[in-house]
Design a protein that fits this description.
With about 290 residues, the chain is mainly alpha-helical. The chain contains 14 helices and 6 strands. The protein folds into 2 domains: about 1-120 and about 205-225, no CATH class; about 120-200, no CATH class. The longest helix has 18 residues, at about 60-75. The chain starts with a helix and ends with a helix. The structure holds zinc ion (ZN). Zinc ion binds near residues 269, 275, 281 and 286.
Length: about 290
């Protein structure tokens, strides 16, 4: 039920933050209400293991990724709900400026432009692609020609209007004014059969956005670390892996770290009774 709600509605940030807090507390203390002081930063915990984290999914990011994916389906699906939503909420493929009393659309509309920014249309029958506005070449034609945004609403020509019996039939003024652009259009091979236009997500090999790809896109990718397979593997019990992972991040609750966080403790290594307790001393030099 929670996941279903995540996929459809934008959750209030306070609720998401409370949910993350419960997850954080549970990881460190086993109790959703008990907070610990020596903990690895939440943004590090949420990184994948090969980037030094635990691979925990941040609820706020899961919510945003789910909505991004639903927005993608709204733009690309041919299910009845998506066709209905496109007709109701979009004008020339872009969100209408009107206010809609829809709790779902409120969470989706911010992602529509983001999807267009990271996608390119493949031409099929050209009926869904706006000739001037949509990106179906290396960039939209209005950018090539520097057409001001105030005129975009009137540019409602579809690509299908430039296709006659399976061949390109470009307007004369376009060929005359910009022969290079006309050439690059004519080089696009048109399908023999009447197939639908297809929006291709740049960050997917097959051009289709999945929930996982949506999450990866929003989370971004960081630097890979070389030690994750030494720490996380089938031969090491998870509790040992977790302690090693905390040690690498220098977040074990030993005297040295407790002092840094304001706890006044008299520190003495419990093994040699000669030096103060610190991560490096206990694990490397005691
Ligand atoms: Zn010692």
């Amino acid at each position: 039920m929670l996941i279903y709600s995540f996929h459809v509605y934008q959750w209030p940030s306070v609720l998401l933050s409370d949910l993350a807090k419960c997850m954080r507390n549970f990881i460190w203390s086993g109790d959703t209400t008990q907070r610990k002081i020596c903990t690895v930063a939440w943004k590090v915990v949420c990184k994948p293991r090969d980037e030094g984290g635990l691979g925990v999914k941040d609820p706020s990011l899961v919510n945003r990724a789910s909505l991004l994916h639903l927005s993608w389906k709204l733009l690309t699906s041919n299910d009845h709900w998506a066709i209905l939503c496109r007709a109701r909420f979009l004008h020339h493929g872009k969100p209408k400026a009107n206010y809609f009393t829809s709790s779902v659309w409120y969470g989706l509309k911010r992602y529509i432009q983001k999807i267009y920014d990271h996608s390119t249309w493949s031409v099929g029958n050209g009926k869904n692609i706006f000739f001037w506005i949509d990106k179906w070449l290396d960039r939209a034609i209005f950018e090539h020609w520097n057409i001001p945004p105030s005129l975009h609403d009137s540019l409602d020509m579809k690509v299908s209007e430039c296709i006659m019996e399976g061949s390109w039939c470009l307007p004369d003024f376009l060929v005359t004014r910009d022969p290079d652009l006309a050439n690059s259009i004519i080089k696009i091979t048109l399908p023999v059969e009447d197939v639908l236009d297809r929006l291709n997500w740049h960050h997917a090999i097959d051009g289709v956005m999945t929930s996982k790809l949506a999450y990866t896109f929003l989370a971004g990718t960081g630097n890979k670390i070389p030690w994750h397979k030494l720490v996380w593997n089938v031969y090491t019990p998870p509790t040992r892996s977790f302690i090693t992972w905390r040690w690498i991040h220098d977040k074990l609750p030993i005297d040295d770290n407790l002092r840094k966080r304001g706890c006044f403790v008299a520190s003495l290594c419990c093994f040699c009774k000669q030096r103060a307790e610190s991560s490096n001393h206990i694990f490397l030099s005691c």
